[in-house]
Design goal:
single chain, coiled coil, 2 domains, Oidioi.mRNA.OKI2018_I69.chr1.g207.t1.cds, mainly alpha
């Protein structure tokens, strides 16, 4: 073998080694890309599931909001009654009237009188009991002597 053929064989061997190394690098990158693609597909599936769940929850929330709006409208209709407004106005006028305040003062006076009479009756009962006790003790003293 000549020197040139040896160099050519060596060059072919070098190219062959580099091509094999590139092939293995390409295979490794392909495996990494497949794994990455698999992860991405899984994430896309999970995102789709979450999206459907979000839509379902959003629909439930919208239903609840609509229920609240209908209840609010119903309450507004119930509160928007002229007869009740008139009754409230009449009640307000009546509470400002002096007739009611004088009647309340009269009731307070009656309650105070009743309290005073009860207190006087209780005091009189206590005095009567004390007097009876004193008479009893005096009678016992007379019997002893």
């Amino acid at each position: 073998m000549s020197r040139t053929s040896f160099n050519k064989n060596n060059a072919v061997e070098d190219v062959s080694k580099r091509q094999i190394a590139l092939l293995f690098d390409n295979l490794e990158q392909t495996d990494q890309l497949r794994r990455c693609e698999k992860r991405i597909k899984g994430l896309q599936r999970q995102t789709g599931l979450w999206g459907r769940e979000v839509f379902a929850v959003d629909e439930i929330i919208n239903d609840r909001r609509n229920e609240i709006r209908s209840l609010d409208r119903w309450l507004a209709d119930m509160l928007n009654r002229p007869d009740i407004d008139q009754l409230n106005a009449d009640f307000s006028d009546a509470s400002q009237c002096q007739k009611w305040s004088s009647s309340l003062r009269y009731m307070d006076e009656i309650q105070n009188d009743v309290k005073q009479r009860k207190a006087e009756a209780k005091r009189a009962e206590e005095e009567r009991k004390a007097q009876e006790l004193a008479e009893l003790e005096a009678a016992q003293m007379r019997l002893k002597s």
